[in-house]
Specification:
The structure is a single chain. By secondary structure, this protein is of the alpha+beta class. It folds into three domains: 7-53, Alpha-Beta Plaits (2-Layer Sandwich); 68-189 and 256-334, no CATH class; 191-254 and 336-395, no CATH class. The chain is 33% helix and 19% strand. The protein has 15 helices and 13 strands. The strands form three sheets. An eight-stranded mixed β-sheet has the order 5-4-6-7-11-12-3-13, sandwiched between helices. β1 (25-29) and β2 (35-39) form a beta hairpin. Bound molecules: flavin-adenine dinucleotide. Flavin-adenine dinucleotide binds next to α4, β4, β6 and β11.
Length: 398
């Protein structure tokens, strides 16, 4: 039976719990809010299936294959504005739904808990748009995928690379009617931190919160997307990566799942059909897409992906790029983040301190932060943010 000695050896995909024929594996949250398998030894029959499907035990090699690469922007302005980058995911999802298929992805529930669910109509697709910077709970989604695949329906499943390899191993055989989409992933933050941050925001805003975007393009566009909070359609909070305390925690690698610091899924050649990620430096490749509305980098990993990609032509503005150029040593594709030296004390404090005091201790709102926020916003307002960012990148040769 599966046995987790070191937390870093479990990515929390839930393949083991989904496959267990006796339902004796429950995914249970630890002190940091991350899910791990909890096995009922009394009902376990030691069939070994949980170990057979574990993507951490059965690591897939990075074996070269033919790839194609594109920069993509969705032609639908609303989809584009709601999506994290270029809205490529929605284009695939719509095509699957137009062919009577089912789309799985990460969505908020009514309490803003992030979990994998499915939709079978375009009206609900908005729920998957925009990256949720918190680990999603895959719950019983792998079992559901298998059921729908066996009904001969087309299925698209999107998620982090570990979740995609988890599903791939869970299924144990290829399906022609399955399309796998993985997002290049920096790391997944703690659901416990997210829950506490939400409590804090609910208190501070004292308004009903009905939508949250981790990457809100309103009001400054794609290059300075911020965490935006909404009440009845009105934006009531927006702060960027320099000033929002949750984003600051995420981007300083203090709140990630332990397995993210030694991630086995950072590689070029993946089990998915499509690998998708951001492209902030689109000006390096193409002028016409450089409009601050968002561009998705798309790497086609299979022939199936290539066939599907050309069916999406009407929905997209795109340019083909050499795969090497598109990847260009993109660090989140290949390197795990370095764990923050104060990670342990941060999680101890989250569990013992008031969340406001805890965030103020590690991420104080001081004059320097206020000045950085002011500078960025002013540069955006007078229209020089892009120019300054591009020049800084050129100067630093990034
Ligand atoms: C946790 C996380 C970290 C990321 N880190 C990076 C990075 O470091 N660099 C980079 O270039 N890109 C990163 N991305 C990918 C990027 O944010 C966009 O998802 C990508 O550019 C595709 O955008 P889109 O506009 O085509 O699709 P979108 O409309 O944004 O949809 C993308 C898909 O992401 C899935 N998704 C959203 N949140 C989660 C989640 N918590 N877990 C699993 N799946 C989820 C949804 O199911 C949806 O199908 C990350 C994404 C996530 C979720």
């Amino acid at each position: 039976m599966i046995h987790i000695d070191r937390k870093e050896d479990c990515c929390g995909c839930g393949a083991c719990a989904n496959v267990c024929p006796k339902n004796c594996i429950q995914m249970t949250a630890d002190k940091e809010g991350f899910l791990y398998p909890n096995i009922n030894k009394d009902t376990c029959v030691d069939c070994g299936l949980c170990e057979k499907v574990c993507p951490e035990i059965n690591v897939e090699p990075d074996t070269p294959k033919v790839q194609k690469a594109f920069l993509v922007q969705n032609k639908d302005e609303q989809v584009l504005s709601e999506s994290t980058s270029g809205g490529f995911f929605t284009a695939i999802a719509e095509c699957v739904l137009e062919n009577d298929g089912v789309v799985f992805g990460a969505a908020f529930d009514e309490n803003f808990y992030v979990k994998h669910t499915f939709v079978d109509n375009k009206k609900e697709l908005y729920r998957f748009r925009n990256s949720k910077y918190v680990q999603s709970d895959t719950n019983d989604s792998y079992k559901l995928v298998e059921k729908v695949l066996k009904e001969d329906k087309l299925v698209c499943y999107s998620g982090t690379p570990c979740q995609i390899e988890g599903l791939y191993h869970y299924l144990r055989k290829p399906y022609d009617n399955l399309i796998l989409v993985d997002v290049v992933c920096r790391a997944v933050p703690s659901p416990l931190l997210w829950e506490k941050y939400l409590e804090l925001q609910s208190k501070k805003q004292s308004k009903h919160i009905d939508n949250i975007k981790f990457r809100d393009k309103n009001p400054y566009g794609y290059r300075y997307s911020q965490l935006g909070i909404y009440s009845f359609g009105e934006q009531i909070y927006n702060k960027g990566v320099e000033s929002d305390q949750y984003l600051r925690a995420f981007f300083s690698n203090i709140c990630d799942r332990p397995s993210c610091y030694k991630c086995n899924y950072r590689k070029r050649y993946r089990v998915s059909d499509f690998t998708i990620w951001d492209c902030f430096e689109v000006y390096k490749y193409d002028k016409k897409l450089d409009n601050n509305k968002g561009v998705t980098r798309v790497l086609l990993q299979t022939k199936k992906a290539e066939t599907l990609f050309y069916k999406l032509e009407d929905k997209l503005t795109f340019v083909e790029i050499e795969p090497e150029k598109l990847i260009n040593n993109f660090k989140e594709m290949f390197n795990s983040p370095a764990e923050h030296e104060r990670r342990d004390s941060f999680f101890e404090d989250i569990n013992t301190m008031d969340i406001k005091d805890c965030l103020d201790k590690y991420y104080p709102n001081n004059v320097k932060i206020a000045a950085m926020k002011f500078m960025r916003q002013t540069m955006c307002k007078i229209g020089i943010y892009d120019f300054v960012k591009k020049s800084a990148k050129k100067f630093l040769k990034k």
